[in-house]
Write a structure and sequence with these properties.
The chain is an alpha/beta fold. The chain has 15 helices and five strands. The chain has a five-stranded parallel beta sheet, sandwiched between helices.
Length: 324
């Protein structure tokens, strides 16, 4: 049996630290103070996807426990195991065991805790009370309003904000340098655009692109994301608004086939570009209202090509009205 290859500690392979979390300066400062004191309250992390909630929980545990990380840290995804049985079983068994590390408590991390049922949350509240001396809980969720008030009152709340473009760009350059990749500015901008403030999504896309080549292009990024370039969608809308419906429809077909986009994908991008258009505000209001209507039609199962084409027709009619 072959032994695992030993990888020496380097800056490239070192364990994650709380200070590595991007774009959450105030949160990082508070969490670092907990780590220094080796004293942690129950924590509730709330915020959108891909902004560092899970990374923060794991980094705290690795800094506190070091090599004993696995014995002192339990990670569970509440969306997979959301019933009361998981609270009475795995969580309770781990919570009442004695800590073996130098830190006087263990950590249970519940990811996507807002997926827990009401009964499971009430059982969790009781467990948090009973084993407060030996176990700390970190709960992560997208919507804190879905966590019952008794649990919220037992936790220190941390609200993670959407990451800024410069934070994501900095991380992209850090990864590209470490992995010796070539990324022109157009490719970086494409990654930021497709990622939409989600660091995890951005890094996953970068990793997928790197499997093909160390030199990553804008076209490659949009192709992997099944998303058109914003300029292409903008041009389609402008053609329709200018009354060139046939040309606009032709370009739409080319984009949908070329990128393998669904009607909903196209609609999302059309909405994003309409709000950026240099047209009167009332025209934008009417067009956004139409986008909402066609979005509803798609959700009801209408044919996506017919509906997106009909939306282009509405944009053409709006452009014609504005000219009068």
């Amino acid at each position: 049996m072959n032994e695992a290859k030993y990888i020496p500690w380097t800056e490239k392979y070192r364990p994650a630290r709380v200070s590595d979390i991007a774009g959450q300066k105030e949160i990082v400062e508070r969490l670092e103070s907990y780590v220094r004191e080796k004293n942690l309250p129950n924590l509730l992390f709330a915020g959108p996807a891909g902004v560092g909630k899970t990374t923060a929980a794991i980094a705290i545990a690795k800094e506190l426990y070091g090599k004993e990380f696995r014995e002192s840290f339990l990670e569970l995804n509440a969306s997979d195991e959301r019933g009361i049985d998981i609270v009475r079983g795995k969580i309770k068994d781990f919570a009442r065991s004695v800590p073996i590390a130098n830190v006087p408590f263990k950590i249970i991390f519940l990811d996507e805790a807002d997926a827990l049922t009401s009964d499971a949350q009430n059982a969790l509240r009781r467990t948090m009370e009973m084993y407060a001396n030996v176990t700390r809980f970190i709960l992560s969720c997208n919507y804190s309003s879905k966590i019952i008030e008794p649990i919220q009152s037992r936790c220190a709340m941390f609200r993670f904000t959407q990451l800024k473009s410069e934070d994501i760009e900095k991380m992209i350059h850090h990864i590209s340098k470490a992995e010796e990749m070539q990324l022109p500015k157009e490719a970086v901008d494409a990654l930021i655009d497709v990622g939409e403030g989600d660091m995890r999504k951005t890094i996953t896309l970068l990793q997928s692109a790197a499997l093909y080549s160390k030199k990553i292009t804008e076209k490659q990024v949009y192709g992997l994301a099944a998303k058109a370039k914003p300029k292409e969608i903008s041009e389609i809308i402008e053609k329709a608004y200018a009354g060139e419906f046939a040309e606009s429809r032709k370009m739409l077909e080319k984009v949908m086939v070329g990128y393998g986009m669904s009607g909903q994908d196209v609609l999302d991008q059309i909405y994003s570009e309409i709000v950026k258009m240099n047209i009167p505000d009332m025209a934008k209001v009417r067009l956004v209202d139409k986008v909402g209507e066609y979005n509803f039609r798609l959700s009801e199962g209408a044919d996506e090509r017919i509906q997106i084409t009909a939306l282009l027709a509405q944009i053409s009619l709006e452009g014609r009205t504005e000219k009068k």
